[in-house]
Structures are given as C-alpha cells and as structure tokens.
C-alpha cells in the first residue's frame, strides 16, 4: 500500500504472522480491498468528513486498515470459491491470527512535479 507522507509516499507491507492454508485464491484481491474500504469508512474522522480526501491517515490508521484488509483476504482464500467474510469474522481473525504491518520506505516525488498531482480534483 502507498500512503502520502510529507513530500512523498510511504510504502507499507502487510502479511499474516503465520502461514495461511490456501484453498482458493479467487476473490482474494476483492476481499482485501473490501476490508480496507470497510475499515476506512468506519473511521470516525471519515464519517465526519465532507470529502473522502479530508481526514489524513496517521501511521496507526494505516496499520489498522491493513490489518483488516489482510484478515479479510486471508479468510477468503481459506475457503473454496469467493466467500467474502463478515465483519465479525474479520475482527475475530485479527484477534486470533494477528498481522505484521510495517513501513518499508518513503518514495520522494520527482523534482518539478506538483505535490497535488495525485490528489482528486475538487
């Protein structure tokens, strides 16, 4: 995942702490994204925002979002077919399995590139 960090972007890595027994990978990416978006929409700052880009993400927000995304994708691949997990199952998975989430590196924007180049238009 990439997140805005000052004048650049911070790359993040997330994975389960223990290996997952994979039955089927169909829907894994969809479930990862769904878990990420669901966690993002549940943030109190997001509920109070007028625009999606308003509330900034702090490091602890990114960790929580990625934990939800990884748990959601893990539960999906542990079953045959695309079976999206429930919110309750995802939260239980986080408590049972845990996830390693860590920043990797900060990517600087190239010189001369406007800092708002990747921001949505207003």
Q: How is this structure best described in words?
A:
The chain has 122 residues and is α+β, with helices and mostly antiparallel strands. It has a 3-stranded antiparallel beta sheet with strand order 1-2-3. Helix 1 packs antiparallel against helix 3 and helix 3 packs across helix 4. It is globular. It starts with a strand and ends in a 14-residue tail after the last strand.
Summarize the structure.
By secondary structure, this protein is of the alpha+beta class.
For the CA atoms, what is the radius of gyration? 16 Å
Please tell me the overall pLDDT.
81
As residue ranges, the low-confidence spans are 117-122
Distance between the termini: 24 Å
Strand line-up across the major sheet? 1-2-3
Strands, count: 3
| Helix content class | 40-55%
Structural class: alpha+beta
Element pattern in H and E: EEHHHHE
Rough outline: globular
The largest β sheet comes out as: 3 strands, antiparallel
Specify the number of helices.
Answer: 4
- What portion of residues belong to β-strands? 15-25%
Fold blueprint:
Layout: E1 2-5, E2 8-16, H1 28-42, H2 44-48, H3 59-77, H4 87-97, E3 99-108
Antiparallel strand pairs: 1-2, 2-3
Helix pairs in contact: 1-3, 3-4
Feature tags:
single chain; alpha+beta; globular; 122 residues
């Amino acid at each position: 995942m990439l997140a805005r960090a000052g004048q650049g972007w911070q790359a993040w890595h997330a994975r389960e702490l223990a290996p997952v027994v994979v039955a089927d990978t169909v829907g894994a990416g969809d479930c990862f994204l769904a878990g990420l978006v669901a966690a993002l929409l549940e943030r109190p700052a997001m509920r109070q925002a007028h625009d999606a880009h308003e509330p900034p993400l702090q490091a602890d927000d990114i960790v929580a979002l990625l934990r939800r995304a990884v748990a959601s994708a893990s539960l999906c691949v542990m079953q045959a077919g695309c079976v999206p997990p429930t919110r309750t199952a995802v939260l239980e998975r986080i408590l049972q399995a845990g996830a390693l989430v860590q920043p990797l590196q900060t990517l600087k924007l190239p010189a001369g590139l406007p800092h708002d180049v990747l921001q949505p238009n207003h």
